[in-house]
Write a structure and sequence with these properties.
The chain is built from 13 helices and no strands. The chain has one domain. By secondary structure, it is mainly α. Helix 1 (about 20-50) runs parallel beside helix 12 and helix 6 (about 145-165) packs antiparallel against helix 13 (about 285-314).
Length: about 325
């Protein structure tokens, strides 16, 4: 999953002169809802690829995503921005760094899903906005408002409680949140849109993924073209799971307010949470219940403060 949300490091510009503001807003909400719903239900897709090692899944994901995104760059008339990103040394280096971060995020997430750790993955994306607040304070010298401080402290208390009471440190959750938080923070200094940025990132990751897949094929160890047409289509379809929600999100961001996007972002981890508990029956002990409750309360405080602050600024 990759997206840019409030406080994740990339500003989203909304259309300043829509022909019908109400229609634009309604369409934007639909696009955003579909994007977050796809991200939230994507674990079902990765579960279908459970027989394939996570590293091989990610290798296919970046290669097929680049093959899908590159034509989209031309269709959406962003080829000049794509070429400029490759020619500008600073932008290229920034995107090389973010490519490593998002690749690591994808790898850990897919591994977590297919090793029955989806609850931790869900928790990671729940606390990501709060991690972004902390990163902004540390690296961008942003001053935290009192509700933000309260939300961060409550979320931290939830993590400590889970570690002490359940005896499990949620390293997957925290690593996912940190990787994605650092991704957004660094992407802030790269003046490229979501589509172009991800196209460059998947291109760079493909430089490592292609030799790896050729190595697997040479040793008759890869899954592509060896198991069956269903598996082949699932591996190729990882591009759609990656690119389609991104395009929907990009279209929505031009039509709705940041505060609306900020509230809707919780659809994705909520979908993951429901799948983990109801569909995959992952253990959900009392300590985890209290931890999620504290995180949800923290997010309610954070979201309310963000909406109020945004409206005052507007």
């Amino acid at each position: 999953m990759v997206l840019s949300l409030p406080n994740t490091g990339k500003k989203i510009m909304t259309s300043s002169t829509p022909s019908d503001p109400q229609a634009q807003s309604t369409t934007g909400v639909v696009y955003a809802g579909l994007a977050f719903l796809i991200w939230g239900l994507s674990p079902a897709y990765w579960k279908a690829l459970g027989a394939v090692p996570a590293l091989e899944i990610i290798a296919h994901r970046v290669i097929w995503s680049f093959a899908f995104l590159l034509p989209m760059v031309f269709l959406m008339k962003q080829r000049h921005e794509f070429a400029a990103a490759l020619k500008n040394r600073r932008t290229f280096l920034v995107l090389a760094c973010t490519a490593v971060l998002i690749g690591a995020n994808w790898l850990l997430y897919v591994w977590a899903v297919n090793n029955n750790q989806l609850l931790q993955g869900s928790l990671g994306y729940y606390i990501n906005p709060l991690v972004n607040v902390v990163l902004g304070m540390v690296f961008l010298k942003e001053r935290l408002r009192r509700p933000q401080i309260a939300a961060v402290l409550l979320a931290a208390a939830g993590v400590v409680y889970l570690t002490v009471s359940y005896g499990v440190f949620p390293w997957i959750s925290l690593t996912l949140a940190m990787l994605f938080g650092c991704y957004g923070l660094i992407r802030k200094v790269a003046p490229v849109g979501s589509l172009v940025g991800l196209a460059v990132e998947t291109m760079l990751l493909s430089l490592a993924a292609l030799p790896y897949l050729f190595y697997l094929a040479a040793g008759n160890a890869g899954f592509l073209f060896r198991v069956g047409i269903k598996m082949d289509l699932l591996l190729m379809g990882t591009s759609l799971v990656t690119a389609v929600p991104l395009l929907l999100f990009t279209l929505s961001a031009r039509r709705i307010n940041l505060s609306t996007v900020g509230l809707m972002q919780y659809i994705a981890p909520s979908g993951m949470f429901l799948l983990a508990v109801l569909a995959y029956h992952e253990p959900f002990a009392r300590a985890q219940v209290w931890t999620f409750l504290m995180i949800w309360i923290a997010l309610a405080i954070y979201s309310t403060d963000s909406v109020v602050y945004y409206r005052r600024g507007k």
